[in-house]
Design goal:
Aminotrans_V_dom; transaminase activity; Aspartate Aminotransferase, domain 2; 3-stranded antiparallel sheet; single chain; 2 domains; alpha/beta; Aspartate Aminotransferase, domain 1; Aminotransferase class V-fold PLP-dependent enzyme; 12 helices; 14% strand
Amino acid sequence: MTDISPPRPDLWTLDPSVLHLNHGSYGAVPRRTQEVLAALRAETDANPMAWFRSVADRLTASRLELAAYLETDPAGFALVPNASAGVTAALATVPIAPGSRIVLTNHAYGAVKFAAERFARQHQAEVVVVDVPLESDDDTVVSRISAALNGSTAVLVVDQISSATAMVFPIRRLVEACAPDGIPVIVDGAHAPALLDAPAGDGADFWTGNFHKWPSSPRATAGLVVAEKWRSETMPLIVSWSEYDERLPERFDMQGTFDYAPWIAAPESLRVLKELDWPRRRMQLSSMLDEGARVIAKALGTSVPDVVNPAPTMRLVELPFPGERTPDAGEAFKIRVSRELKAEITLTGFDTRIFIRLSAHAYNSLDDYKFLAERLPSVL
């Protein structure tokens, strides 16, 4: 393993008696950002009228900073609560004719699959799920998905980094595969901000990603990037006073009596990442997780799956899961690990396999994963 900078748990307010190994689900907000957020909320309640008069300008400033971080056109960047909301807004925009097909893969996030099913029911369309093996290389991914595309395909919805399998998909090549038939592409980039550079730059019609994960911004902060051809038609999910604003970002900004403080505080977390020299630390964390995953797999007597393009700061370790393999059983196991080991983990499933999905951020060290390896066999 390469040398790694010392962990910085001091920048967060995480409970030091707990092993935090699942940043990828809900993130963790740095202390400084929490202080900015608390000050904004205090200001809101000190004079709500003055606060809401100031929101539009503050949102514009924050939005421009977040768009710059993604290296994307600010005129096509809107703020949304999360990537699921971004996917839903995109699906509400593309034309879905009766009898057409919404194509996604078996790596799709559950809520995104539900969104596709909802729109398919509304439009008498069909959801087509493409089987992409976990160990696929980019050529296999493109070949499998391309084979499912035809003249009746209304839209392709694809992960940039899959939540369940921590796998990076070749988005640019998939966009190119869809281009000849004019098939719109919606990219679920929930995990991409801060893990991939310029994640919205591969030419998709719609891209959406969360800032509350790896950028560590307050929760309910995400972005939606819309290609120019779709901007006039893309509408927020809530009808409010900005309904007739011709500009895409401003149309999404004002959603009634909403808590705008997280969106305004979000850039503070980007400044924390900058001070951490995040691109360098991200590489270090990736190397650390490779070793941590191997240590845990050895302790469990299992293996680390050969994901060709793994997400930089997430890894899978196969789990010899005891008993019945149901969502309720998985949740009960995670609660037991939390209670007995004082460790927070998450489980994911793919095909018939169960995995621990490990995550790492700047507050983690290799010792965290060694500790889990020592203790986890006792609860199996």
